[in-house]
Design a protein that fits this description.
Elements (H helix, E strand, L loop, with lengths): L1 H27 L2 H11 L8 H8 L32 E4 L3 E4 L2 E9 L2 E12 L8 H14 L16 E8 L32
Parallel strand pairs: 4-5
Antiparallel strand pairs: 1-2, 3-4
Amino acid sequence: MEQRTRLAGDIALAQEQALYDASCKRLLSHKIFLAWILKYCLDEYRDCDVETIMEKYIEGNPSVGETGVDPDRSNWQTPEGASIAGMNTEDKLVTEGWVNYDIRFQALAPRDGSLMRIIVNVEAQNRYNPGYPLIKRGIYYASRLISAQHGVEFERSEYGKIKKVCSIWICLNAEAEKRNSITRYALKEEQLVGKNEEAAVNY
């Protein structure tokens, strides 16, 4: 009896966690939240107002992405363009298995007087210490965002067509001393000997 009760509790907890995760992803998929995230996480949007980012730069169909929970439209209507479906949220390689993204979409970004396209991934992470370095998982996700562009954004050696990628992780249960902070890890140029600068748009 005790084992059955424990099993029932575990099942209920798993169901509750699944609903929590799905609701969080659905909430974050709304363009207004994505616009605020882009403004404070990417330099390209620093001088843009949130409304412009939401209406002009974030691309996607006006529907919620694949979160596993059907939209509840019984009590309210989603304004046109208020949520984003984004791109396919799954990548698969035969040797790597499935990689599931919470939210993935493309956005235009102003840079040097022109517009560039960025592929953005937003993850809602409920466990701050999942048993492995979370930063390495983030690096892996960003790497897959790049490699998945082969055959879609570029063919063969057309590496100049690779789009900038960004994987943003929102950690919901961090330790108290680490809350209310934004930390960025990025690929950047470092001159070790001499001076051989590359245009930042290429990395």
